[in-house]
Specification:
CATH architecture of the largest domain: 2-Layer Sandwich
Shape: globular
Oligomer: single chain
Structural class: alpha/beta
Radius of gyration: 28 Å
Number of strands: 41
Strand order of the largest sheet: 6-5-17-16-15-7-8
Largest sheet: 7 strands, mixed
Number of helices: 34
CATH class of the largest domain: Alpha Beta
CATH topology of the largest domain: Alpha-Beta Plaits
Amino acid sequence: MSSIVFQNDSPNWWRSLDELAGSPRFRAFLEAEFPDAADPPGMNRRRWLQLMGASLALAGISGCRWERQEIAPFANRPLDRIPGTRQHFATAMPTGSTAHGIVVTTVDGRPIKIEGNPRHPQSLGATNVFAQAAVLELYDPDRSCHVYRRSGDKQSEGTWEQFTHFCQSHFGRLCELAGDGLCVLSQGNTSPTLDRIRHDLRTNFPSACWFEYEAISDDNEREGARIAFGKPLRAQLALDKAQVILCLDADLLGSHPASVRHARDFSMGREANAGQMNRLYAVESRYSLTGAAADHRLPLPSCQIPAFVGELEQTLAMMADSDHSVPTHQDQPPSQIEPFVRTVVRDLLANGGRSIVAIGSNQSPAAIAAVHRINARLGNEGKTVIYTQTMDPDRPAHLDAIKGLVEKIRHGNVNTLLILGGNPVYNAPADLAFAEAIAGIATTIHLSSYRNETSRQCSWHLPQAHFLETWGDARAWDGTYSILQPAIAPLYGGRSEIEVLAMILAASSREQVPDARMEDLVRRTFQQMAGDDPVVWDKTLRDGLLIDSAWKAESVPVPGGPVLEHVRPYQVPENGSLEITFWSDLSVGDGRFANSSWLQELPDPMTKITWDNAALVNPETACRLGIENETKITIQAGGREMTIPAYILPGQAPGSIGVALGYGRTAAGHVGGDTSLGIPPVGVDAYLLRTTDAMTILNGAHVKATGIPYRLATTQDHHAIDAVGQTGRDKKVAALIREANLDYYREHPDFAQHVEHHPPLKSLWEEHFFDGHRWGMSIDLSKCIGCGACIIACQAENNIPVVGKEQVLQGREMQWLRVDRYFRGPLGAPQVAHQPIPCQQCELAPCEQVCPVAATIHSQEGLNDMVYNRCVGTRYCANNCPYKVRRFNYLNYHKDLGKDGGEVSKMKYNPDVTIRCRGVMEKCTYCVQRIQTVKIEAKKRRLVIRDGEIQTACQQVCPSQAIHFGNIADQESTVSKKYSLDRAYALLSELNIRPRTVYLARISNPNPDLEKMPTKHASDHT
């Protein structure tokens, strides 16, 4: 690493440290674009079978869903049901403290795709990766399909009837004792129906206790608002109305519960062609999606953010009182970041009422309260920062709740514990030893979708219904109320939290437990909110939300609280005082999505790591501690230790090590790991170091380098070109990522057209003639935040297989769409750019010229089509593709579908897309099946296809609206207007292959006082 550290200011964009250093491994990738062997030596066939359908589990679930077959004629077909046609149902996906409005597409009664609900204010038609992968979870054969009852050290299969009988007797006795000894532990939930039933439960069991726990919580935000305003409130941020945004360890575009809406609002302020752009500052310890999109980013350890807030607040007060003049500090020397603070404060003051200061929920309540005061002083309240109520304002903090429950257990005051969802044995603070605590409880009941770590420690395990299988309701981040309606009958006999609680309530009154009609329970709640008009109910079901149900803005007092002290200068922690930061992973969340193969194989937006987590280390810190990239390190703190591979990430704050939560599961399933079946965990369990005193930031850590190598399956250097081509690429990289700042763009609006100049282009091939539709795509690099939602949407839409870690290490990932991440500048604080790369659909496609069997051909509408039945796998087309967007299918990833029980796994596939087999090439098709569906429907109805009526999967999911698709032959279409912008350019246009995908040059809006951009072209003319 030392050679990189001292040569760390590259003027060009580079994709990884290996590429920058020209490491042997990177050179090996250049020399062998395709590995020789289809089945590499040492490949773990058992692991491959586990990933490709979990055959062991599939063989055992045939009696779970398909035990009884009913074959009957469809004599009385419903009026709205035509076999083979698609139906769409509006519903919502609840996740912790929020819910996402979605639309579920079903074919013959089975959900196959999820999109955002365009009517819902928190989605506006877009989604995130978790919503896109929910269909895979629905059909996961590892989902629990049986009731289990524990006897001694063994759990045996049971039935719902057995639990119902137990429920009547057990909870009937508890009711006579007023619920003494009964505790309920639930995960975060925004369901008003669940809240109503909880109050009914407290009435029947007055001595019972209810606790709520989420591993990733907004507790600090609630407490910060309580300090500032006297009660917990939720800050709703209107990024579309802000000209200046300052994020302090706040990933508004990535991990925030309202990230989908934030991305849309933020992108509305990045319209460079409108002449105005917002400006984003980020101060953070690890590189987040928000930091990557920022115009200025300051790497700073998370433990020093409160000191930064204190200096910010004091500087703001001094500059506001002195008419923006620069304050001076006579009593102490200036800090290293004081010029940054002064410049940011000056910008904020100049945009009073049009700015936002946001802080992450991992920061202390005192620092969050200080940010409320800063926003108030800037005049942002009621304009860009709106305060509303929050769910259950009187509940204790999640950390206090789990601590209180464990203390109650250890005092012997709990004899029945009902756990609704969640996985506290896995993610409760390590020092609470939750598994040991519940071992002494006489009766423990866990409702969960999987037999996870908690289920295996409980007396009873109950299978939980998926949100697509049941009725329910939920509130979004802004309070918008949605009804959850089932899109399919429960595949595995699961039941929801509401159903289980209804059973217990019925048992407490000694009534026969009825077949719960969930719809009636939810409708009763709805009637209390909106009345009993059936028209309103039907409209809410159809729209997916209750109109005007978002929480109203609250009138808040002048925020109070003590002024934070700031400490200067800021120092880089030494070994022994390093900080470890924990965060919810962008792929697997807090661990609840660990068994989703789509998400496990999704490259992390910044590290491009798949199938693992790693300790993110700053290059300078790594050099100082003797840490080499992709080697194991041992982290020790508070008498605990963890061994984890290190990944050296440019831009990570010095002295701060970031570790993602959600990995290291021992009972996730065949994908995420199950030690009882001999399947090792994926990644490392970071909860081992997370204690009640260090839930988000762990200080005082000591790190030791072991030197033991550990290969991480990263994709960033994959699909690189050969060594000769790499030399040319280094010269042309600025032509790939064309960028300028706003001031330069205003003076030279056509700069993107002058990055390269070449003689008139002549083609060796016969050119195509297009007399109808001409499909094309535009991608705005100013708006792309690199979230990866487009990758999962493409995978779900096009039946793209998962290959597993071993194959990713071989460079064989199958995703048709990749998002390249580039760095530029010093290793300590580089700039970042994201660039999605699908098939460019070249009009003069070089892949077509070399295919010996015409498997890849051109359509009359400009699409580069694939005929899979013709392909013989020569891979000539991939060698001849300058964009490296073709994928060779090395293995048969679907051979287990014909085995017993494979019917469930088959249900996730899109019937409009061919299932490919081993030995063929695959690539992006511009979602040709969607194009043809709309064309056929328009022809039947004799209608003209409207602009925007056809959306590709990547376009539809994109939360920032960076992607547009349409007919470029229509001069009034959105994509045609994007084509005509002065920022539009084609990748490698000098090859004269005429790609149909154009990019809009990346425009940033840096503060001139912090950065002077060069007033010359982004690259020399060639």
